[in-house]
Amino acid sequence: MAHPSQLGFQDAASPVMEELLHFHDHALMIVFLISTLVLYIIVAMVSTKLTNKYILDSQEIEVIWTILPAFILILIALPSLRILYLMDEINDPHLTIKAMGHQWYWSYEYTDYEDLGFDSYMLPTQDLAPGQFRLLEADHRMVIPVESPIRVLVSAEDVLHSWAVPSLGVKMDAVPGRLNQTAFIASRPGVFYGQCSEICGANHSFMPIVVEAVPLQYFEKWSSLMLEDT
Amino acid sequence: MAGEEEESNKGFRLLGILDVQNTPCARDAILHGAGGSLTAGLLHFLATSRVKRSFDVGFAGFMLTTLGSWFYCRITNAKLRVQQRVIQDGIKNKVTYEGTVLDPTNKPGAETSSRPS
């Protein structure tokens, strides 16, 4: 999860997010080199004693500062497009979950085998146990099996919402009357937090998403318990 | 304890942009770049005795060496990651398919005996 004064991404919990992290490092290195170049040129311009009041044009430098940025953009675009297509690959999901956005909570439906559905409300601050995270914990987590491709169908019942979990590299708008699909694989067990990412009213900041990835046998136990409760 | 972990994870950011400690390959690329810059600039100065131009050559050496080292390291890492994933999938599939028709280590003669009736 996020920690105070964090600047970078959260640790990746899915292969797609790992690729996004690597691409971000790549783009940031290019940004750093360009910034260094600009800084060096500024220092050189400021410290030179040479002046030429009669420069009108220079074809050579014009060619350089056209070709070089085009080359840099290609260097950035190629890995970017690769990840874009990687994210859209169809990966034969083992489980489909519907995430419905409401004002102001999420509801999850696991209807592949049995009819399991539950709401997920934020835990109020006064009800938190020691060690739990303020504004991030929910009363019911979306539990998924680890290392399994999961498809999430996202929609909304009232206004626009957005289902986002940064460490899984997932964000999908929840649009009323529309079904949006996203997919991911949780590569390690753990609890992953996200928050609604589309302004949806007074309690937009208070409808978190909590995804818990567990080994398959624990997922089966959890789903049986949830079915008994409902 | 948590504070110590946070301090060790807070990498040093070059120009406030690049987290050198926590970005894979960044530290090596910058160090190689520094070395390349020093070498190129010094050699040019020894050859021409032109200070300002040697600085320019040194800077160009820094850019090229950093980029080259960065790309080489990232491509190597990416290939290793792909290999790691292939090995992981292979181990997972071996456990799943062991003893069945789909086991890749099954010899052709043993296939008929392992088919389910």
Tell me what the structure shows.
The complex is a heterodimer of chains A (230) and B (117). Chain A has helices spanning 15-47, 59-87, 216-229; strands at 95-102, 105-110, 116-120, 142-145, 149-156, 161-165, 170-174, 180-185, 190-195, 208-214. With 230 residues, chain A is an alpha+beta fold. Chain A has two domains: 13-48 and 56-86, Helix Hairpins, CATH 1.10.287.90; 93-227, Immunoglobulin-like (Sandwich). In chain A, β1 (95-102) and β2 form a beta hairpin. By secondary structure, chain B is mainly α. Chain B has a domain at 24-93. A two-stranded antiparallel sheet of chain B has the order 1-2. Chain B starts with a helix and ends with a helix. Classes of the chains: A alpha+beta (230), B mainly alpha (117). Chains A and B meet through α1 of A and β2 and α3 of B.
Structure summary:
The complex is a heterodimer of chains A (230) and B (117). Chain A contains 3 helices and 10 strands; from the N terminus they run ααββββββββββα.
Mean pLDDT of chain A: 93
CATH class of the largest domain in chain A: Mainly Beta
Structural class by helix and strand composition of chain A: alpha+beta
Q: Which percent band covers the strand fraction of chain A?
A: 25-35%
Q: Roughly how many Å is the radius of gyration of chain B? A: 26 Å
Shape of chain B: elongated
What's the number of helices of chain A? 3
**Helix count from the secondary structure assignment of chain B:** 4
Largest interface: A-B, 21 and 25 residues
Which residues of chain B sit in consecutive blocks of at least 5 with pLDDT less than 50?
A: 1-8, 110-117
Q: What is the CA-CA span between the terminal residues of chain A?
A: 30 Å
Give the helix level of chain A as a range of percent: 25-40%
> Taking strands numbered 1, 2, ... along the chain, how are they ordered across the largest sheet of chain B?
1-2
Shape of chain A: elongated
Average predicted local confidence, pLDDT of chain B? 80
- Enumerate the strands of the largest sheet of chain A in spatial order, edge to edge or round the barrel: 3-2-1-5-8
